[in-house]
Amino acid sequence: MAAPLYGVIGFPVKHSLSPAMFAAAFWEYNMNATYEKFEVAPDALGDFLADARRRPISGLSVTIPHKTAVMDYLDSVDTHASVIGAVNTVVNKKGKLKGYNTDWTGAQRAIEDVMELKDKDVLVLGAGGAAAAIIYACGNAGARVTILNRTLDKAQELAERFGGGIKVGLLSDILQYRANLLIHTTSIGMGPDAERSLVPVEFFRKGLIVFDIVYTPLENRLVREARRAGCRVIPGYKMLLYQGEKQFELWFKKKPRTDKMEEALLRELVALDR
Ligand SMILES: NC(=O)c1ccc[n+]([C@@H]2O[C@H](COP(=O)([O-])OP(=O)(O)OC[C@H]3O[C@@H](n4cnc5c(N)ncnc54)[C@H](OP(=O)(O)O)[C@@H]3O)[C@@H](O)[C@H]2O)c1
């Protein structure tokens, strides 16, 4: 019998680190399963998913730019994913495709490794797709959230989507705010942009916890300056790790060896940093 097939869909997808994480997880359990990268252009998404039902592809990770569009082609979507407005995981059960979001649980787990969210003040920088999952996670865990974004309208839209209680402001006014946890969710600070930071050093103070979800490189300017000011830092790769852990649980109904997935992920990230 052919090995059950899993994979990640995105466009582009060649830089995805998920295959390394899942190869390590499958190896630990000596599992007869494979995980591939599928580069799927936006106009080919519907056909790809129709084919995935039949082949079958047993489970998919979904990445940019398909996280919202994929919802139109599924048989059902779990409640959390539908409130967030994005699916990053698909489970194929006898030809029926169900969508889930594990970005929010991944973010919550990464934060709760380090601090409790209940009744804490959280400042989220950015109002894009990743921010939506993170804001949902923080709200769900009982934190008070303020969103600061370059474009105020987008922050307002996001705050309204999650109901009352979320404050919004402009990123340029960051020094007027204080928080227990700062979460950076924009793409600034990634790759060749690593020496750009949207956070003035004066914002950092001892006691502040900083979570920058950018994970390439492992340490960018924001993270370096936060550490230097005595802040505790939650590494961005932890969100990727824990969303993958939850995907494994959804597909196989058991927990993976997350420590082995983390080793594999860090090996890839260290190699990318060189
Ligand atoms: N660690 C993880 O597991 C994980 C998971 C998902 C994503 N990520 C990372 O998170 C980042 C954002 O992803 P996304 O999907 O949320 O992207 P997105 O939907 O495109 O949102 C991008 C956000 O960045 C802001 N932004 C972009 N350029 C800016 C600039 N020059 N100055 C100020 N703000 C700027 C945008 O502000 P405007 O609204 O004003 O345009 C928007 O709020 C990426 O680096 C991605 O790799 C990490």
Q: Which helices and strands, and how do they pair?
A:
Blueprint: E1 5-10, H1 18-28, E2 34-39, H2 45-54, E3 57-62, E4 76-77, H3 79-84, E5 89-93, E6 96-100, H4 103-112, E7 121-125, H5 129-140, E8 144-149, H6 152-161, E9 167-170, E10 181-184, E11 209-212, H7 221-228, E12 232-234, H8 237-252, H9 258-273
Parallel strand pairs: 1-2, 1-3, 4-6, 7-8, 7-10, 8-9, 10-11, 11-12
Antiparallel strand pairs: 3-5, 5-6
Helix pairs in contact: 1-8, 1-9, 4-5, 4-8, 8-9
The protein binds NADP nicotinamide-adenine-dinucleotide phosphate (NAP).
Quick description:
The protein is of the alpha/beta class.
What would you say this structure looks like, in words?
Helix content is 36%, strand content 20%. The chain has 274 residues and is an alpha/beta fold. The chain folds into 2 domains: 5-101 and 238-273, Leucine Dehydrogenase, chain A, domain 1 (Rossmann fold, 3-Layer(aba) Sandwich); 105-235, Rossmann fold, CATH 3.40.50. The protein has a 6-stranded mixed beta sheet, sandwiched between helices. β8 (144-149), α6 (152-161) and β9 (167-170) form a beta-alpha-beta unit. α4 (103-112) packs across α8 (237-252). The radius of gyration is 19 Å and the shape is globular. The mean pLDDT is 97.
Ligand list: NADP nicotinamide-adenine-dinucleotide phosphate
- The main sheet orders its strands as 2-1-3-5-6-4
Structural class: alpha/beta
- Uncertain regions: pLDDT < 50 for 5+ in a row? none
What is the CATH H-level superfamily of the largest domain? Answer: Leucine Dehydrogenase, chain A, domain 1
**Count the helices. How many?**
9
First-to-last CA distance = 41 Å
The major β-sheet equals:
6 strands, mixed
CATH uppermost class of the largest domain: Alpha Beta
Mean pLDDT: 97
